[in-house]
Model the fold of this input.
Amino acid sequence: MTLSDYLPVLIQFVLAFTMAIAILALSALLGQKSRRSAIKDSPYECGMLPIGPAHPKFSVKFYLVAMLFILFDIEIVFLLPWCLILRESLAQQLPVVLPGLFFIFLLSLGLLYEWKRGALRWG
Done:
């Protein structure tokens, strides 16, 4: 590979960067200018007066459950290809099954640990 092989990629990056800067500059120059006011900056709640802060604070428990959901949801990304490989390799199942079962066992231990610690309880 020579440097000339990467020239089209470099040209594409330069054009994309130039286009992005040009669009932002034209938007700032030609776009509508509006004056800010307290009424315009208030959140719109379907005609009702907004009550309380616009961004309420969530409990740490909410974020913990969200992270655990993502963690145990991502396991599907690893288990789906494993299942497809398992389906194709019927002759050599044991070397394919054992690592997958070990992975499922570790995830089950993690879920059991979080359950026993009470990370999944909302109350």
Notes: The mean pLDDT is 82. Residues 78 and 105 are 14 Å apart (CA to CA). The two ends are 61 Å apart (CA to CA). The chain has four helices and no strands.
